[in-house]
Amino acid sequence: MxxxxxxxxxxxxxxxxxxxxxxxxxxxxxxxxxxxxxxxxLLDGSGLKPSSTGFRVRWEGGRQHxxxxxxxxxxxxxxxYTLIQVRSHEEALQWARRYPNPMGGGRDAEIEVxxxxxxxxxxxxxMSGTARFRELGMG
Length: 139
Description:
Family: Belongs to the YciI family.
Order of helices and strands: EHHEEEEHEHH
InterPro entries: Dimeric_a/b-barrel, YCII
Radius of gyration: 18 Å
Protein name: YciI family protein
Number of helices: 5
Pfam families: YCII (PF03795)
Domain YCII-related: 1-105
Shape: flat
CATH architecture: 2-Layer Sandwich
Strand order of the largest sheet: 2-5-1-6
Helix content: 25-40%
């Protein structure tokens, strides 16, 4: 089972500001991700630049629109992620509880953890076309 641990953005991450204890935070994050790697569950992880550097592609009324950042609701944005592959929901929860405070120090922060769909989830619903994704090495 794959899970994505998402770090919620805040005003500082959206402004591209790092906390005063950024060196300590980087060391804590590196240690945590090294632990994940040693356990064989780490798939990927990274911080995301502020939404002002990105864009969204939106489909409305059958038409495609590109909307440049930044976006107003920073609390709804993702500032970083870690992708893990574990055996159970409980194991994902255990790893999430060990996640360092992503904003550093005693600052308020939030992570959200959600399972990814696996190709088997679609196959169980009778959906076809999963073989093409398998050929690409996905899922």
